[in-house]
TrEMBL record:
Transmembrane segments: none
Gene3D superfamilies: 3.90.1150.30
Pfam family for this entry, one: YjbR
Protein name per the record: MmcQ/YjbR family DNA-binding protein
InterPro entries named in the record: YjbR, YjbR-like_sf, YjbR/MT2646/Rv2570-like
Length: 118
């Protein structure tokens, strides 16, 4: 079953409520959650995309209703378009993990602003 708009809205609200997260609209209609100016969640077209750990990419992108995210797969992002792939709770965990992965790549001084230790 495709991700309903209400579920996408709820997951985006969850992402934007994470510490240091900000909301933006890019490319005309893609809703984005970022930290330190770097995206960690992208919502649009009835799907959401987020960064995953390198070791989880193949397994997660192979689930029914999930695939490598267009244009972002080389950076280990997956796109989820169906509730068959992951439950809303699993998606929330993935979004929080995506934020952590992106935060770790920020410069040390910027990470400190978000409470991340070196």
């Amino acid at each position: 079953m495709p991700l309903p708009a209400a579920v996408l809205d709820d997951l985006l609200a969850y992402a934007c409520a994470l510490p240091g997260a900000s909301f933006d609209v890019k490319w005309g209609s893609e809703r984005v959650a970022s930290i330190g100016g770097k995206m960690f969640l992208l919502c649009g077209g009835g799907a959401l995309s987020y960064k995953v750990a390198d070791e989880d990419f193949l397994m997660l992108s192979g689930l029914p209703g999930a695939r490598p995210a267009p244009y972002l797969a080389r950076a280990r992002w997956i796109q989820v378009s169906d509730t068959e792939a992951l439950s809303p709770d699993e998606l929330r965990q993935g979004i929080a993990r995506s934020r952590e992965l992106v935060l770790r790549k920020l410069p040390k001084a910027l990470r400190g602003q978000y409470g991340e230790q070196a």
